[in-house]
Amino acid sequence: MRIEFNHFNRFVTIICLAICIPYTNVRAQVQKPEPSYGFYKGVFYFSMIGGETSYTGGSLIQREKDYQNGLRSQANLGILPVRMVGTVPFPQSFPLPTDKIQSGNTRRVSMEYGLTDNLGFFISYNTIAIESQGTNQLAVIDRNQPNGYTTYIEAIPLSATLYKDRSYGLGLNYHFLSKNRFDPYVGLEVSVLNFDTKYRSGQLNNLYYPTYTHPGTGYGGRVAFGTNYFITPEFGIAIEIYGSRKILKSNAFESESINHAGFQFGFIFNFESMGRL
């Protein structure tokens, strides 16, 4: 009986080992590797950033500035009278309100895929809106004038959205470091866009100098220098300095350009690391 009992113990031990060893191997095989920080091959990244432009220029902006400067010069030389509202005169000793093109607000979202440990391909959606404030030219009926009206400048400034667009881009980012919390990069992008802009022609229309909003399309290029800092493998802070140039066309003009540059700040997410949570 003792011999049979020893044989039984050995049999049970062999069965247990036969079950446990493969199970242990399977657990070792399916155990997920530790998530990595930073940028690397085969991963999708989603970023959301925004900010204000520090520079806005181009022929579209310069044209609006020239138009405003022309009205101000005519007012200063006495060629055009200045009125407060309607027929209320504006005191000559008072300066006209300052004309200005304000900085534009920008928003950007992008999805990037790691082609290699250093090179990423991305698609993006961007918006920008630029506000302006300037003098406005109006007219009133005046039968004492040969043409039947008098033109004047309104002292109360005209505030409006001078330009806004929605652009859709694709491009490449080169990341200098791989699998690192600190992820500096340089990027190039091309885009197509839809825009709306105020385009003042200076032509009188039924005693009104219109400031119509004209829609149009265009294309552009963008260069960016930035860095991401990953607080965790799943989430990080994104900082970017960029410059952009766009060529525009609409029913109001054959070709104009707009340039802007600025600083943006936001967040970045590593979808692979998030999927491991």
How would you characterize this protein structure?
The longest helix is centred in the first third of the chain and has 29 residues, at 2-30. This protein is an alpha+beta fold. The protein has one domain: Porin (Beta Barrel), CATH 2.40.160.20. 19% of the residues lie in helices and 52% in strands. The chain contains three helices and ten strands. An eight-stranded antiparallel β-barrel has the order 1-4-5-6-7-8-9-10. The chain has helices at 2-30, 59-76, 271-275, and strands spanning 44-57, 82-83, 100-101, 105-114, 119-141, 149-175, 182-198, 213-230, 235-250, 256-270.
Q: How much strand content do the residues show?
A: over 45%
CATH class: Mainly Beta
What fold name stands as the CATH topology?
Answer: Porin
What is the residue-averaged pLDDT?
83
Instruction: Encode the helix/strand succession as letters.
Output: HEHEEEEEEEEEH
InterPro entries: OMP/PagP_B-barrel
Protein name: Outer membrane protein beta-barrel domain-containing protein
Task: Summarize this entry quickly.
The chain has three helices and ten strands. It has 277 residues and is α+β, with helices and mostly antiparallel strands.
Write the layout of secondary structure elements.
Layout: H1 2-30, E1 44-57, H2 59-76, E2 82-83, E3 100-101, E4 105-114, E5 119-141, E6 149-175, E7 182-198, E8 213-230, E9 235-250, E10 256-270, H3 271-275
Parallel strand pairs: 2-6
Antiparallel strand pairs: 1-4, 1-10, 3-5, 4-5, 5-6, 6-7, 7-8, 8-9, 9-10
